[in-house]
Design goal:
Helix content is 44%, strand content 17%. It is an alpha+beta fold and 462 residues long. Helix 6 (145-153) links the parallel strand 4 and strand 5 (160-164). Helix 14 (359-372) packs across helix 15. The radius of gyration is 24 Å and the shape is globular.
Length: 462
Amino acid sequence: MEFLIVLPYLLSLLYLVFHLCELVSRRRDRCCYMLAYECYKATDDARLDTGSSAKIVFRNKNLGLEEFRFLLQTIVNSGLGEHTYCPKNVIAGREESPSLIDALSEIDDIMFNTLDRVFEETQISPSSVDILVVNVSLLPGLPSLSARVMNRYKMRADVKVFNLAGMGCSASLVAVDLVQQLFKSYKSAIAVVVSSESLAPNWYCGKEKSMMLSNCLFRLGGCSMVLTNNRLLKHKAIMKLNHSVRTHIGANDEAYGCCFQKEDELGYRGFLLTRALPKAAAIAFSMNLQVLVPKILPLRELIRYVIISRRRKTKGAAANFFDTASAGLNLKTGVDHFCLHPGGRAVIDGIGKSLGLNEYDLEPSRMALHRFGNTSAGGLWYVLGYMEAKKRLKKGDKILMVSVGAGFKCNNCVWEVMKNLEDPNVWEDCIDRYPPKSTVNPFMEKYSWLNDDCLNFVKFHN
């Protein structure tokens, strides 16, 4: 009789325990682990050194002396070195008349080269892939690039396939965030992300200064990675995604138009970068940090920030959240490494200053820019590869990835290192030479005719 009285309570308790266990299991399945990533390195016949860069500049018949000076001086100040890569059709002098074959050949080489290596490294079969995300902004095609991957590796018919276009430099983190969201619905899944950009059909051949900048910064590159939420593969993971925050301010007309693909007056297609870009980046970055920072900093640092902010308000000084250093925030209390998008020297300097970072923190981004250039969506992974090659990444370390891109958007995330990382990667053959004693662009020595008048001209137009 007493047992019958207690029985309903026992059943209720068992029911509660069962659902708690199920809830914990679901939360664990939402984890996003990275098993491996592989960056692309082109062959030497695609190398863009000082000599080949000058040939490309001087054969543009649309440029006058003024445009020559502007373009070469921009290259001098770009932060790029002698070993970046560009599409073979540009090296061969066919940048004004690229073919579809040029574009597809470039992308196929990047995608399949990195995918072959990442599948080999992880011992994951393409038939085991549940989710595929490919992001290349400037090459929409039919069938899609993701379909080309499906066909090449004969993947299953039920793979969830996504082809992202027009997302810009921060598309890689958009793809990672998409995978993380999908992991909430698919248990024990394996996802593959391919991030790159198409330069072969998008080399600008006109004379608009604001559209020439892309030729000075963007270079050949890309990355493929394997992600999973399968707890049985946790021991193989190199990193775990702790937080991801996406911010999009495309509703603002000025921000929307600051990075734009268009045609100039002569009909040449290119990528426009306006003077509103720094302002848009500051707004998007600030909004993103306001969401991300409370998630990554310890409570004591947040309390200290609140006290400092109130003191500043009392004195009549408003804290700029974008400039975390002046606002009193110390991000290093919650983050060990900073992986900044190598979009250009000015981008690295600006974000570094706002976050209160030193030269050691900025070195990976500067060196990735110097060695590989701005590889758009793939850029962050070259920075990460540099950190790994320098044996900086230890188990338990936190990495903040910062990216901005057309739209305008800012996508940031925080990874946790799961094991000491020191495997060979794309930096293997040159890491001993970095950082170099000097990162002065060789154009400075070979084109000494760029005098003070030219420098003043460039400064005025920047």
